[in-house]
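> forwarded from #structure-qc
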């Protein structure tokens, strides 16, 4: 596993990783997580690879999830002064955020990318439809060095925020994996009741294709 402090990582995550999904904002007509919504056409699905060679460390700069129409820049996220994990800012140009103390996508270990389900007055967040992903759906992380790390979804879970599976999400693994995390479930006074977690495994890497630039 790449060098990072699992203890600090899991402690911060357990404290409030995505409890700060932002102000849910006004009620919208878009279905909440758990409600079936029209699914954008997925151009392809892949079968998760049993084993793929780890990639060199390179910061993610863009994330593509074709099955749910996600094509977003990726920003770096660190820790807040209180030791909790920062989340992406609530802005109109909502973006996903990679926790920079986790492995980069394609390195051995769990690389973690966070995103909002809603962004207050600006409406839907970049991970609004994350819960609609299915096993085999493709995720592409474009890296700073020009490589495209290609993952396939292995599992999607919606879990109560109070029972976040810390070890499953942040525990050591012996292959390159990816975690996409957002809020879900019913709205509460301070956000949402659940977290949606997508688990994915590296299937390979290649230079970006023209359609993914």
């Amino acid at each position: 596993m790449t060098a990072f402090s699992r203890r600090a990582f899991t402690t911060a995550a357990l404290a409030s990783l995505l409890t700060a999904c932002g102000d849910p904002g006004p009620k919208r007509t878009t279905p909440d997580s758990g409600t079936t919504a029209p699914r954008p056409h997925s151009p392809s699905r892949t079968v998760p690879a049993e084993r793929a060679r780890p990639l060199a460390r390179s910061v993610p700069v863009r994330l593509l999830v074709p099955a749910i129409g996600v094509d977003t820049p990726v920003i770096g996220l660190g820790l807040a002064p209180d030791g909790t994990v920062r989340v992406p800012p609530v802005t109109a140009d909502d973006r996903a955020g990679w926790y920079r103390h986790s492995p980069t996508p394609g390195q051995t270990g769990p690389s973690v990318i966070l995103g909002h389900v809603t962004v207050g007055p600006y409406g839907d967040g970049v991970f609004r439809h994350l819960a609609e992903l299915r096993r085999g759906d493709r995720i592409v992380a474009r890296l700073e060095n020009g490589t495209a790390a290609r993952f396939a979804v292995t599992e999607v879970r919606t879990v109560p925020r109070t029972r976040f599976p810390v070890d499953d999400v942040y525990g050591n693994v012996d292959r390159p994996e990816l975690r996409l995390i957002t809020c879900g479930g019913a709205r509460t006074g301070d956000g949402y009741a659940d977290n949606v977690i997508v688990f994915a495994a590296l299937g390979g890497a290649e230079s970006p294709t023209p359609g993914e630039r």
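QC bot note: DSSP finds two helices and eight strands in the chain. The first helix runs from residue 6 to 16.
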